[in-house]
Amino acid sequence: MDWQGQKLAEQIMQIMLLVFAVTAFVAGYVLGSFQMMVLVYAGSVTLTGLITIPNWPFFNRHPLNWLDPSEAEKHPKPQVTVISKKKGSKK
Amino acid sequence: MHSFGYRLNGLLTFAVTILALMCAITSLSDNFNTPSPSAEIKIMNINWFQKQPQGHDEVSLTMNVSADLQSLFTWNTKQVFIFVAAEYETRKNSLNQVSLWDAIIPAKEHAKFWIHTSNKYRFVDQGNNLRGKKFNLTLHWHVMPKTGKMFADKIVLTGYSLPEEYR
User: Does the keyword Transmembrane apply (chain B) (predicted)?
Assistant: First the structure.
Protein backbone atom coordinates (compact mmCIF):
# COMPACT_ATOMS: atom_id res chain seq x y z
CA MET A 1 0.00 0.00 0.00
CA ASP A 2 1.12 3.56 -0.58
CA TRP A 3 0.68 6.45 1.83
CA GLN A 4 -2.63 7.62 0.33
CA GLY A 5 -3.84 4.06 0.41
CA GLN A 6 -3.00 3.69 4.08
CA LYS A 7 -4.95 6.81 4.96
CA LEU A 8 -7.88 5.61 2.87
CA ALA A 9 -7.81 2.18 4.52
CA GLU A 10 -7.88 3.70 8.00
CA GLN A 11 -10.75 6.06 7.13
CA ILE A 12 -12.79 3.27 5.53
CA MET A 13 -12.23 1.05 8.56
CA GLN A 14 -13.35 3.65 11.10
CA ILE A 15 -16.41 4.81 9.17
CA MET A 16 -17.55 1.29 8.31
CA LEU A 17 -17.27 0.09 11.92
CA LEU A 18 -19.20 3.07 13.29
CA VAL A 19 -21.97 2.84 10.70
CA PHE A 20 -22.33 -0.91 11.14
CA ALA A 21 -22.33 -0.58 14.94
CA VAL A 22 -25.27 1.83 14.77
CA THR A 23 -27.04 -0.45 12.30
CA ALA A 24 -26.47 -3.49 14.50
CA PHE A 25 -27.77 -1.70 17.60
CA VAL A 26 -30.89 -0.45 15.83
CA ALA A 27 -31.53 -3.90 14.35
CA GLY A 28 -31.17 -5.56 17.74
CA TYR A 29 -33.34 -2.99 19.52
CA VAL A 30 -36.14 -3.13 16.96
CA LEU A 31 -36.14 -6.93 16.78
CA GLY A 32 -35.81 -7.22 20.55
CA SER A 33 -32.92 -9.62 20.13
CA PHE A 34 -29.52 -9.12 21.71
CA GLN A 35 -28.18 -12.06 19.74
CA MET A 36 -29.15 -10.40 16.45
CA MET A 37 -27.20 -7.28 17.36
CA VAL A 38 -24.06 -9.25 18.18
CA LEU A 39 -24.33 -11.38 15.03
CA VAL A 40 -24.81 -8.40 12.73
CA TYR A 41 -21.88 -6.63 14.39
CA ALA A 42 -19.59 -9.66 14.16
CA GLY A 43 -20.43 -10.06 10.48
CA SER A 44 -19.73 -6.40 9.84
CA VAL A 45 -16.36 -6.56 11.61
CA THR A 46 -15.36 -9.47 9.37
CA LEU A 47 -16.54 -7.60 6.26
CA THR A 48 -14.63 -4.48 7.27
CA GLY A 49 -11.55 -6.59 7.86
CA LEU A 50 -11.80 -8.15 4.42
CA ILE A 51 -12.02 -4.74 2.79
CA THR A 52 -9.41 -2.78 4.70
CA ILE A 53 -6.72 -5.25 5.75
CA PRO A 54 -5.47 -7.04 2.61
CA ASN A 55 -3.35 -5.15 0.14
CA TRP A 56 -5.96 -4.52 -2.55
CA PRO A 57 -4.89 -2.75 -5.79
CA PHE A 58 -7.17 0.25 -5.24
CA PHE A 59 -5.05 1.15 -2.23
CA ASN A 60 -2.05 1.54 -4.50
CA ARG A 61 -3.25 4.19 -6.93
CA HIS A 62 -0.62 6.77 -5.98
CA PRO A 63 2.50 4.66 -6.02
CA LEU A 64 5.74 6.22 -4.89
CA ASN A 65 8.43 6.74 -7.45
CA TRP A 66 11.37 4.97 -5.94
CA LEU A 67 14.64 5.85 -7.56
CA ASP A 68 15.64 3.52 -10.39
CA PRO A 69 18.67 1.37 -9.41
CA SER A 70 20.57 2.17 -12.60
CA GLU A 71 20.04 5.88 -11.96
CA ALA A 72 21.22 5.50 -8.40
CA GLU A 73 24.53 4.08 -9.48
CA LYS A 74 25.31 7.23 -11.44
CA HIS A 75 25.22 9.28 -8.27
CA PRO A 76 27.27 7.43 -5.69
CA LYS A 77 26.79 8.19 -2.06
CA PRO A 78 29.33 10.68 -0.79
CA GLN A 79 32.09 9.02 1.23
CA VAL A 80 32.66 10.20 4.76
CA THR A 81 36.39 10.51 5.38
CA VAL A 82 37.33 9.39 8.85
CA ILE A 83 40.76 9.83 10.39
CA SER A 84 40.99 6.71 12.45
CA LYS A 85 43.36 6.54 15.37
CA LYS A 86 45.02 3.22 15.49
CA LYS A 87 45.41 1.99 19.02
CA GLY A 88 47.85 -0.70 20.01
CA SER A 89 46.45 -4.07 19.15
CA LYS A 90 44.94 -5.84 22.13
CA LYS A 91 45.37 -9.53 22.64
CA MET B 1 -1.52 1.46 8.84
CA HIS B 2 1.87 0.42 7.65
CA SER B 3 1.67 -3.33 7.65
CA PHE B 4 -0.90 -6.11 7.67
CA GLY B 5 -0.45 -6.76 11.39
CA TYR B 6 -0.71 -3.05 12.21
CA ARG B 7 -4.01 -2.71 10.36
CA LEU B 8 -5.39 -5.90 11.88
CA ASN B 9 -4.53 -4.70 15.38
CA GLY B 10 -6.11 -1.30 14.74
CA LEU B 11 -9.29 -2.87 13.42
CA LEU B 12 -9.68 -5.31 16.30
CA THR B 13 -9.01 -2.71 19.00
CA PHE B 14 -11.46 -0.25 17.50
CA ALA B 15 -14.08 -2.98 17.02
CA VAL B 16 -13.85 -4.14 20.64
CA THR B 17 -14.02 -0.56 21.96
CA ILE B 18 -17.16 0.08 19.92
CA LEU B 19 -18.62 -3.19 21.19
CA ALA B 20 -18.09 -2.02 24.77
CA LEU B 21 -19.89 1.22 23.92
CA MET B 22 -22.78 -0.71 22.38
CA CYS B 23 -23.14 -2.80 25.53
CA ALA B 24 -23.18 0.34 27.69
CA ILE B 25 -25.92 1.90 25.55
CA THR B 26 -27.85 -1.37 25.65
CA SER B 27 -27.75 -1.35 29.44
CA LEU B 28 -28.89 2.29 29.49
CA SER B 29 -31.84 1.44 27.27
CA ASP B 30 -33.15 -0.77 30.08
CA ASN B 31 -34.00 2.38 32.04
CA PHE B 32 -36.75 3.16 29.54
CA ASN B 33 -38.65 0.06 30.60
CA THR B 34 -41.38 0.77 33.19
CA PRO B 35 -42.36 -2.56 34.70
CA SER B 36 -45.78 -3.26 36.22
CA PRO B 37 -45.51 -6.58 38.03
CA SER B 38 -48.19 -8.09 40.25
CA ALA B 39 -48.13 -10.92 42.74
CA GLU B 40 -50.29 -12.70 45.29
CA ILE B 41 -49.32 -15.19 47.98
CA LYS B 42 -51.86 -17.26 49.91
CA ILE B 43 -50.87 -19.43 52.83
CA MET B 44 -52.82 -22.62 52.30
CA ASN B 45 -51.75 -24.47 55.44
CA ILE B 46 -49.44 -24.37 58.42
CA ASN B 47 -48.08 -27.93 58.27
CA TRP B 48 -46.39 -27.91 61.66
CA PHE B 49 -45.02 -25.43 64.19
CA GLN B 50 -42.44 -26.82 66.62
CA LYS B 51 -39.74 -25.79 69.01
CA GLN B 52 -36.52 -27.46 67.88
CA PRO B 53 -34.13 -29.26 70.26
CA GLN B 54 -31.74 -26.27 70.22
CA GLY B 55 -34.59 -24.04 71.36
CA HIS B 56 -35.44 -22.29 68.10
CA ASP B 57 -38.96 -22.08 66.66
CA GLU B 58 -39.57 -23.63 63.28
CA VAL B 59 -42.58 -23.44 60.97
CA SER B 60 -43.43 -25.44 57.88
CA LEU B 61 -46.07 -23.94 55.65
CA THR B 62 -47.63 -24.56 52.26
CA MET B 63 -48.27 -21.53 50.11
CA ASN B 64 -49.70 -20.67 46.73
CA VAL B 65 -47.61 -18.06 44.89
CA SER B 66 -49.09 -16.52 41.76
CA ALA B 67 -47.45 -13.66 39.87
CA ASP B 68 -47.29 -11.85 36.55
CA LEU B 69 -43.73 -10.59 36.03
CA GLN B 70 -43.76 -10.40 32.24
CA SER B 71 -43.27 -6.63 32.16
CA LEU B 72 -39.88 -7.01 33.82
CA PHE B 73 -38.35 -8.64 30.72
CA THR B 74 -36.54 -6.51 28.11
CA TRP B 75 -34.39 -7.43 25.10
CA ASN B 76 -31.41 -7.25 27.44
CA THR B 77 -32.74 -9.64 30.11
CA LYS B 78 -31.07 -12.97 30.62
CA GLN B 79 -33.20 -14.24 33.52
CA VAL B 80 -35.13 -13.04 36.54
CA PHE B 81 -34.33 -14.43 39.98
CA ILE B 82 -37.22 -14.25 42.45
CA PHE B 83 -37.50 -15.21 46.08
CA VAL B 84 -40.15 -15.03 48.81
CA ALA B 85 -39.03 -13.81 52.22
CA ALA B 86 -40.93 -13.68 55.49
CA GLU B 87 -40.31 -10.46 57.43
CA TYR B 88 -41.18 -9.86 61.06
CA GLU B 89 -40.11 -7.96 64.14
CA THR B 90 -38.84 -9.35 67.45
CA ARG B 91 -37.67 -7.82 70.71
CA LYS B 92 -34.05 -8.44 69.79
CA ASN B 93 -34.15 -7.41 66.10
CA SER B 94 -36.26 -4.76 64.42
CA LEU B 95 -36.23 -6.73 61.17
CA ASN B 96 -35.88 -10.44 60.61
CA GLN B 97 -35.91 -11.74 57.04
CA VAL B 98 -36.11 -15.43 56.28
CA SER B 99 -36.00 -16.66 52.71
CA LEU B 100 -38.65 -19.31 52.13
CA TRP B 101 -38.58 -20.09 48.43
CA ASP B 102 -36.80 -18.99 45.28
CA ALA B 103 -36.82 -19.66 41.53
CA ILE B 104 -35.18 -18.61 38.30
CA ILE B 105 -37.42 -17.44 35.45
CA PRO B 106 -35.45 -17.95 32.22
CA ALA B 107 -37.86 -16.36 29.72
CA LYS B 108 -40.82 -14.04 29.40
CA GLU B 109 -43.19 -16.93 28.61
CA HIS B 110 -42.58 -18.43 32.06
CA ALA B 111 -43.04 -15.15 33.93
CA LYS B 112 -46.80 -15.48 34.40
CA PHE B 113 -47.24 -18.42 36.74
CA TRP B 114 -48.69 -19.88 39.89
CA ILE B 115 -47.11 -22.51 42.10
CA HIS B 116 -48.39 -24.51 45.03
CA THR B 117 -45.41 -25.38 47.21
CA SER B 118 -44.15 -25.88 50.73
CA ASN B 119 -41.28 -23.67 51.84
CA LYS B 120 -38.06 -24.67 50.10
CA TYR B 121 -35.90 -23.32 52.91
CA ARG B 122 -36.54 -23.75 56.60
CA PHE B 123 -38.42 -21.02 58.37
CA VAL B 124 -36.43 -20.95 61.63
CA ASP B 125 -36.33 -18.14 64.16
CA GLN B 126 -33.34 -17.01 66.20
CA GLY B 127 -35.04 -17.87 69.45
CA ASN B 128 -38.67 -18.68 70.12
CA ASN B 129 -40.59 -15.57 69.15
CA LEU B 130 -42.87 -16.95 66.49
CA ARG B 131 -45.99 -17.81 68.46
CA GLY B 132 -48.80 -15.56 67.33
CA LYS B 133 -46.33 -13.51 65.27
CA LYS B 134 -47.63 -11.19 62.53
CA PHE B 135 -45.40 -11.20 59.48
CA ASN B 136 -45.14 -9.88 55.92
CA LEU B 137 -44.32 -11.92 52.86
CA THR B 138 -42.25 -10.02 50.31
CA LEU B 139 -41.62 -11.18 46.77
CA HIS B 140 -38.19 -9.90 45.69
CA TRP B 141 -36.91 -10.00 42.12
CA HIS B 142 -33.52 -9.44 40.52
CA VAL B 143 -33.64 -8.74 36.78
CA MET B 144 -30.31 -10.07 35.53
CA PRO B 145 -29.21 -8.48 32.24
CA LYS B 146 -27.26 -9.94 29.36
CA THR B 147 -24.98 -6.93 29.74
CA GLY B 148 -24.86 -4.06 32.22
CA LYS B 149 -26.82 -3.08 35.31
CA MET B 150 -29.00 -5.41 37.35
CA PHE B 151 -32.31 -4.08 38.67
CA ALA B 152 -33.84 -5.33 41.91
CA ASP B 153 -37.18 -4.52 43.49
CA LYS B 154 -39.91 -6.09 45.59
CA ILE B 155 -43.61 -6.28 46.48
CA VAL B 156 -44.59 -6.36 50.16
CA LEU B 157 -47.70 -8.35 51.07
CA THR B 158 -48.94 -7.83 54.61
CA GLY B 159 -51.44 -9.46 56.90
CA TYR B 160 -50.08 -12.92 57.64
CA SER B 161 -49.78 -14.37 61.11
CA LEU B 162 -48.67 -17.56 62.83
CA PRO B 163 -50.74 -19.62 65.30
CA GLU B 164 -50.60 -18.86 69.02
CA GLU B 165 -49.62 -22.37 70.07
CA TYR B 166 -47.24 -25.02 68.77
CA ARG B 167 -48.81 -27.78 66.71
Answer: yes
CB–CB of A34 and B4 under 8 A?
no
Domain that holds residue B3: 1-32
Query: What is the pTM (predicted TM-score) of this model?
Result: 0.79
Give me the DSSP letters along chain B: --SHHHHHHHHHHHHHHHHHHHHHHHHHHGGG-----EEEEEEEEEEEEEE-TTS-EEEEEEEEEEEE-GGG--TTEEEEEEEEEEEE--SS-S-EEEEEEEEEE-SGGGGEEEEEEE-SS-EE-SSS--TT-EEEEEEEEEEEESSS--EEEEEEEEEEE--SS--
Across the interface, whether the CB atoms of A25 and B22 are under 8 A apart is answered yes
**Which residue of chain B is at minimal alpha-carbon distance from A5?**
B1
Both B59 and B78 in one domain: the answer is yes
Interface test with A, best of B12, B14, B74 (most A CBs within 10 A): B14
ipTM given for this complex: 0.75
Per-residue confidence in pLDDT tens, chain A, 91 aa: 778 888 888 898 999 999 999 999 999 999 988 999 999 999 999 999 998 888 888 888 888 778 787 877 777 787 788 777 766 555 5
- Count of domains in chain A? 1
